[in-house]
Amino acid sequence: MTETLPRLLLRLSEAGDPAILWGRQAAPHAGRDFERLLDHGVLVEQAPATEWDVCPACDCGLYARPVQQVNGQHIAVCPTDRRSDLVLDDDDLRSFRIHPSALVREIAMASGFGGEPAPVATGVWHLGETSNQRALFLALSQDAALQPGLIGLMRSLARSSPITVIAPAMAADDRARLVDAGLHLVDVSHCIACDGAAPGLSIDQSKLESQPSLAPRLVIQRAAKTVSLDGTPKTLSDQEFQLLVLLAEHALKSPAIVENRAIEAHIWGASIHRISSQVREPVRALRDALARGSTDATSVRALIENRRNPNGYRLALPSEEIELLS
Ligand SMILES: [Zn+2]
């Protein structure tokens, strides 16, 4: 068993309501925790299945095949081929509906949020406040997290508090839409039933804190020919841009130093021989361009660092602070 019962229930809930736990999936999790979820109404057992999926490649034309009792056995009968009949046991026919609001109540209780989670919209609840005074919401499914109007509803409930939303992992552009609206988004699997730190269905509050900003200081987009430093867009000439890309490429590998003659060859082409001192001019222009609009122009200019032995320049940023995009 690789997946815990809480993880399984959350995963099945991601596709939306109704989420069904089949007896076959539930069987390995039988025990006290499972009984408690039944008692609390998180899992509600349904009537035994009377229909079964048709054979994977069947011409019977049925939407589902009937389950029949034959000699005390449950058999999913294939109307066209007896050899495709499937003998089912009780676990196959059992199923449990996962009750979303009861599941969320269980999560809130296990996490120490007092009171009943307040429904905000279909599939979304307001759990309360995090330890760092953020309004905390939980969306069980992708559809719930992305429903129209949700951001406004959450804002009105949060009043002026910043908002954290726990939601299933979603596509990058969907995620960006929520993040752009100022929400802090945490994956369900990142903070609930994630590992040993928070037992059962409880939320690991330490996983809700905003990650320290790992935003790179320098972002270069090659195709678009844009540069931003410390979040400020910089205007560079073609030559300045080419020089910065060259230095960034080298800074991302080793050695970071680009020798003067390599810079010359890059800017003017290998066939033209010039004296090294002429590299100073494009370097100065690049430093000026980067420093323009920066509060600390001196330290920005020093990012294009003079080096000796070999004589050249390097971009004085650690590789994790440089993002060189195609
Ligand atoms: Zn069949």
TrEMBL record:
SUPFAM superfamilies attached to this UniProt entry: C-terminal effector domain of the bipartite response regulators
DNA-binding region: 209-317
Chain segments annotated as transmembrane: none
Superkingdom of the source species: Bacteria
Domain OmpR/PhoB-type: 209-317
Alphabetized UniProt keyword annotations: DNA-binding
PROSITE patterns: OMPR_PHOB
Classification via InterPro entries: OmpR/PhoB-type_DNA-bd, Sig_transdc_resp-reg_C-effctor, WH-like_DNA-bd_sf
Name this protein carries in UniProt: Transcriptional regulator
Organism: Bosea minatitlanensis
